[in-house]
Design goal:
The complex is a heterodimer of chains A (559) and B (209). With 559 residues, chain A is mainly α. Chain A has 18 helices and four strands. Chain B is 48% helix and 10% strand. At the A-B interface, helix 1, helix 2, helix 3, helix 5 and helix 6 of A face helix 1, strand 2, strand 4, helix 3 and strand 5 of B.
């Protein structure tokens, strides 16, 4: 069997697995967020928080909950890192410097998981499991909560009530993420992912048969439990520097495919949850089809360019295997790279900086679409619904009608929120990239020169502002400039869009639904999927083309 | 004004309490439960899949090693591997890739150099290696720098050298490689591969045993 065919079969296997699981999981999530009942453990948690889970919240109250919880998360994680040096269970690792601690705290709370540190030498057990891994759960649950609030905005009328943030947060963790993570973590251990609380561990080394062998020092760690939620919550922050390329995080071809499945399963299944909650499964399918079309298209392009391996070093080597693991090969690495950048994951099983020029461009474009195909847990769905609003607006302009979506009028107020949403991340990416290029020192962090050096910086801000977290990792981002500006990009790129999503949700929830007429654009048909795919590609293309032309396109076309 | 400060403080308090409660659930109970199950059911795997030779631990079957003598099968290059720069009371391996692009001059030089070395090292008196025979994995660094595997093509290329240096028949060494070649999982997942540490451990048993 050729590697190309094996790659295609792996893609088909993934599609089959996702098709099988998205229905029951999507239906389960719809029940979780629609139920009136509380589990006993949830009641204990609400008592601990001191919140009444049955109080409905209007959008400002919902937003205040999101922001307060996230602010507490940043503060706690920052202090935990600053105090690591005196915390027990930290392997004697020293405290993290202020700018890096800020960057990392923001990174994990915003579901970005950009890492300017090396996991194996910097973070002890306590920070990894009680700090970073906790944010893997809760930042994902916050994302889903905001998406559910928007869906309720469409589904409910005239009340303005979007649900209760604390209830949505706790249910997402207790009823969805924890059960799935337990199963996933045990599957990963069965594949060979480590799960222990050993200290730094000295073991023998083969070296060569004549000498008695040297030794090597290893980190132990609760890796499987963190790996599971790292993928499932579309987080992506690796326990080790090499992330999911590290054999202790991703030991076999099966674990690799399983991890790709994990990072896609919640975002894809949420389209079903959406369909259920707005009372039309077909509306969910139209969104699912849009996401799937872009994802499959990007995988096909990536496999094409990586198997063709244009580039002087790859031509010389006879394949684009630099930065790729033998056990995964080019096919599976291509699927992982596209899936991780079209979601907000940012985990990597191969290093994007050593992809072909065009391959690197595909990973960047994936993030620049706004991570909506299928996107992050929750953030993918709300990002895609914003694009759907833009698409019906464009269609409305063509025929001169006030656009509607799901029975709600898209008026001036709604389109303003949607427009602000799609302007934030490009503004952050392009302004900060330009600033970094214009200043004298940030360029010193580049490993590569020329177009690829520019790409390293463009990639960094694209990744941070879109809350992805992957990198063209040649860039030395542990400088005050990058820790600070990337930290700000992550914060603004996460929470400003959420403000507009919740404001939009509030505005929609306050409207009386309008009955569909013969003139209403049908948003549950393939025609709409086509319109939506087109709108997404054109809007992103127009925004980022000049920047992409200077970086990955220049590199890709030259080789 | 005063009122809004109190409200903000109250809200932050609720956020902090929620975080602490969820930290107990997700950051303490969850990892401990998974560790318990993992240690009970998959003890060896949960602790790093160590392999022993002559009664001594010689590493993990998952973690590739550098520094084998030419009597043994060689792993992929690992130009992205580093050593720890902080917490230097330990001597930790930092996993990582080179992150060099396809048009990077240094990467081009590394590939050239590696290719010349593979050709030279593996050519024996009655077996000449041509540069076109050298597979891509033999001259490129992996993503982790800890790739435990090489392609079957790279292992085959090394058979003559290993046989000659150990005074073994070529067919015997080739058979050993075949025994350690793992195909794609279920026929389609990943790529065929040979685990270098396991192969070398078996080779050592053969020559010293």
């Amino acid at each position: 069997m050729s590697p190309v065919l094996a790659g295609i079969l792996q893609l088909l296997a993934l599609i089959a697995a996702l098709a099988l699981v998205h229905r029951p999981l999507g239906d389960h999530m719809a029940r979780v967020y629609s139920s009136d009942r509380h589990l006993r453990v949830e009641k204990w948690i609400y008592k601990g928080i001191g919140a009444d889970p049955d109080t409905g919240m209007r959008w400002p109250a919902y937003l205040r909950g999101v922001l307060a919880f996230s602010a507490a998360g940043v503060l706690f994680l920052y202090l935990l890192q600053r105090l690591q040096g005196v915390l027990p269970g930290s392997l004697g690792f020293s405290s993290i410097d202020p700018d890096q601690a800020f960057n990392t705290a923001v990174s994990f709370v915003t579901n970005t998981n950009w890492q300017s540190y090396y996991g194996e030498q910097a973070m002890g057990h306590v920070v990894q499991t009680a700090g970073l891994a906790v944010q893997n759960f809760v930042s994902a649950a916050v994302g889903i909560a905001v998406a559910v609030a928007l869906v309720r905005g469409f589904a409910r009328s005239r009340g303005g009530d979007l649900g209760n943030f604390w209830a949505d947060l706790v249910r997402g963790v207790v009823r969805i993420l924890i059960p799935l993570s337990v199963v996933a973590a045990i599957v990963l251990v069965a594949c060979g992912v480590i799960q222990n609380f050993s200290g730094i561990h000295e073991v023998g080394q083969f070296v060569d048969g004549h000498s008695s062998g040297g030794s090597q020092q290893w980190n132990g760690g609760a890796v499987a439990s963190q790996e599971a939620i790292k993928e499932l919550g579309t987080n992506g922050g690796g326990y080790f520097n090499a992330n999911s390329a590290h054999p202790f995080e991703n030991p076999t071809p099966f674990s690799n495919l399983f991890e790709i499945f994990l990072l896609l399963v919640v975002p894809f299944s949420l389209t079903r949850t959406f369909g259920r909650m707005v009372g039309s499964l077909k509306q969910g399918y139209a969104i699912l089809a849009t996401m799937a079309t872009i994802w499959v298209g990007f995988v096909a392009l990536m496999m094409w360019t990586e198997f063709a391996h244009h580039g002087p070093a790859f031509d010389l080597a006879g394949g684009a295997l630099e930065g790729k693991e033998t056990r995964f090969g080019v096919g599976a690495s291509s699927i992982f790279a596209v899936s991780t950048t079209l979601t907000s994951t940012g985990a990597v099983d191969s290093f994007h900086s050593s992809f072909t020029g065009l391959g690197g461009g595909i990973t960047m474009l994936g993030m620049q679409l706004g991570e909506i195909a299928p996107g992050g847990t929750g953030s993918g769905l709300y990002g895609m619904l914003i694009m759907a609003i833009i698409a019906v607006f464009i269609a409305g302009l063509m025929v001169g009608r006030t656009p509607e979506y799901l029975g709600k009028k898209i008026g001036t107020r709604e389109i303003k929120f949607a427009a602000l949403y799609i302007l934030i991340t490009p503004a952050l990416v392009l302004v900060l990239t330009a600033a970094a290029m214009a200043l004298p020192t940030p360029g010193n962090s580049m490993t590569n020169t020329g177009a690829h050096g520019f790409s390293e910086i463009l990639y960094a801000y694209t990744s941070a502002a879109n809350n992805n977290g992957s990198a063209f990792a040649g860039l030395n981002a542990d400088t005050q400039w990058f820790n600070t500006t990337l930290g700000l990009a992550m914060l603004l790129g996460r929470f400003l869009p959420m403000v507009f999503v919740l404001a939009l949700a509030g505005s929609l929830a306050g409207q009386k639904p309008v009955p569909a007429t013969a003139g209403t654009l049908r948003t549950d048909k393939p025609l709409f999927t086509g319109l939506l795919v087109g709108a997404i590609l054109i809007i992103t293309g127009l925004t980022y083309f000049p920047a992409l032309a200077l970086g990955p396109l220049a590199e890709g076309l030259a080789s | 004004m005063n009122n809004s400060v109190t409200n903000t403080a109250r809200l932050l308090g609720a956020g902090l309490r929620a975080l602490l409660v969820l930290t107990v659930v997700c950051g303490v109970l969850y990892p401990l439960a998974v560790t318990g199950v993992a240690q009970a059911l998959f003890h060896s795997k949960a602790n790093g899949s160590e392999i022993t030779s002559d009664g001594k631990v010689v590493g993990s079957s998952l973690i590739g090693q550098q520094g084998y003598g030419l009597d043994y099968f060689q792993p992929r290059p690992a130009n992205g591997l580093g050593e720890n720069s902080v917490n230097t009371q330990y001597k930790l391996i930092l996993s990582g890739a080179t992150n060099r692009s396809g048009d990077n001059a240094e990467l081009i030089a590394w590939v050239k150099e590696a290719k010349a070395k593979v050709v030279k090292d593996n050519s024996t008196v009655d077996y000449k290696v041509r540069p076109s025979q050298v597979p891509a994995d033999a001259v490129t660094s992996s993503g982790s720098g800890l790739d435990p595997d090489i392609s079957p093509a790279y292992a085959d290329l090394q058979v003559h050298r290993v046989a000659e240096r150990n005074g073994l028949p070529v067919d015997r060494v080739r058979k050993l490689v075949d025994q350690h070649t793992e195909g794609r999982t279920l026929g389609f997942m990943g790529e065929p591969r040979v685990n270098v540490l396991e192969l070398n451990t078996a080779l050592k048993d053969l020559t010293k045993g």
